[in-house]
Design brief:
The protein is an alpha+beta fold. Helices cover 19% and strands 19% of the residues. The protein contains ten helices and eleven strands. It has helices at 80-98, 105-109, 188-201, 246-252, 281-285, 289-296, 332-336, 376-379, 381-390, 419-422, and strands at residues 67-75, 131-136, 179-185, 206-217, 270-279, 320-321, 324-325, 347-348, 351-357, 363-373, 397-407. The chain is globular. Mean pLDDT is 89; it is low at 1-45.
């Protein structure tokens, strides 16, 4: 893991609009950002920023921040050159914003003779732990049988639209996309500012397909973080992989060099699974605590498995009570546990969401589930099929959005996101 580099206030030349973004190729990363060959996403004590550059993209094993703005984009141009120029422009802007500086640098922010290069709503705020993580959807490679940008032969075999799982009720307007950006920060304004500026840079090249705001992380990515609660009131993700478990990261998160000969450019990257899960809050709130705990498989106050112990005690699925197993056969903990999923463990970065109310006056709220997996065919899809068809909690849940994206590895200073794919 790298330590954060000193952040520079050196002004950077900024071209307004994507048409000129190709001129950034040679300039990306020059000036002020330390070349790092380790993981992105570690900051020095007291430094509220994370390195953008590194072996892996920041925003994966980085300690989960409190706020999320996730955005999916459709590419609306047929020009490979314009797409490359946008990715180069996004790289430079991401490096600036994650360092806590305005897009285009301090000098550009004070220019009076052209529209500001930065939208300005984050001026005076620090980086607030901002991370920006980029991914590529299957339709970037092929759509409607068309090899859109000459990338079809490099599409990873596992990168495709996720299957329709039992009980899914997906909204196409909240699913999939050509590109995705995950912005996480401790200040919601910083996260929103980041997506706003990336969308602005993409004008004419991409359009926003859908977006999701999230608050209150529902996952811990490091052992130093306590286990958070979801909107059902229970601790979530106790048994998930943590950043310190490097062997399990290699097994379940990072794509290996030999995983896919078609997609060697993805080595060191990952796959991002996004699922928007609505919760039937009002029905859940009228359910007895006994029933809630039996469905989850843990007690609510401490998060301990119903077979006994403390939160991190390994569940005993064989332990019997007077009416059968103490851990119900349809409990979420049992069906999500590695022992019932061929040893698979998830690495998650989920968030709560609430988007007002629906037409019937019910809360439009739930969990925006994000997981990073090495191979969705073995590390996500079988588990989700099992949960969707057998989990007792499904009575209170409905999956309304979905997406799968290939997340390329991190980059060294002077490179740009996706460069290895387009090489």
């Amino acid at each position: 893991m790298s330590t954060a580099s000193p952040k520079s206030g050196i002004s950077r030349r900024r071209l307004l609009g994507v048409a000129g973004a190709g001129a950034l190729t040679a300039g990306v990363g020059v000036g002020g950002f330390k070349l790092t060959t380790a993981d992105a996403g570690k900051s020095e004590a007291g430094d509220p920023s994370y390195d953008f550059y590194g072996t892996h993209q920041a925003g994966i094993v980085t300690p989960a921040q409190d706020r999320l703005h996730f955005a999916s984009f459709d590419v609306i141009t047929d020009s490979r050159e314009d797409l490359v120029a946008l990715l180069q422009a996004w790289t430079q802007a991401a490096a600036e914003m994650t360092a806590g500086t305005p897009v285009g640098g301090e000098e550009a922010a004070r220019s009076y003779d052209s529209p500001p290069a930065d939208t300005g709503e984050a001026l005076g705020l620090n980086a607030s732990g901002l991370t920006l993580t980029f991914g590529f959807g299957p339709t970037l490679f092929e759509k409607g049988g068309q090899d859109r940008f000459g990338l079809k032969e490099r599409q990873p075999k596992a990168l495709r639209e996720l299957p329709h799982f039992p009980a899914d009720n997906l909204d196409p307007a909240r699913s999939n996309g050509d590109l995705c950006v995950q912005a996480c920060a401790h200040d919601p304004q910083v996260a929103v500012h980041a997506i706003r500026n990336l969308a602005r840079l993409g004008f004419g090249t991409v359009s926003m397909r859908w977006a999701q705001l999230g608050f209150g992380r529902t996952s811990s990515t490091t052992t130093s973080q306590s286990t958070p609660r979801n909107l059902l009131g229970f601790k979530d993700g106790t048994a998930n992989v943590k950043a310190e478990e490097t062997d399990d990261l290699d097994s379940f998160v990072w794509v290996g060099e030999d995983d896919d000969p078609r997609a060697t450019w993805l080595s060191g990257g990952s796959y991002l699974v996004a699922r928007r899960i609505n919760m039937h809050i009002e029905t859940w709130d009228r359910t007895s605590l006994r029933e809630q705990e039996n469905l989850v498989g843990r007690d609510r106050p401490e998060g301990a498995p119903l077979s006994g112990g403390t939160e991190f005690t390994e569940p005993d699925f064989d332990l019997q009570g007077s009416d059968g197993p103490l851990m119900a056969v349809d409990s979420h903990v049992r069906l999500a546990h590695p022992s019932t999923n061929n040893g698979t463990r998830l690495f998650r970065r989920g968030y709560n969401f609430t988007d007002g109310s629906d037409a019937l006056g019910r809360l439009d709220a739930g969990l925006f589930f994000i997981a990073f997996v090495r191979d969705p065919d073995t590390h996500y899809i079988p588990m989700q099929n099992q949960l969707s068809s057998q989990d007792g909690l499904m009575e209170y849940l409905q999956h309304t959005g979905s997406g799968l994206f290939a997340v390329p590895p991190g980059i060294a200073e002077g490179s740009w996101i996706g460069e290895a794919l387009f090489a």
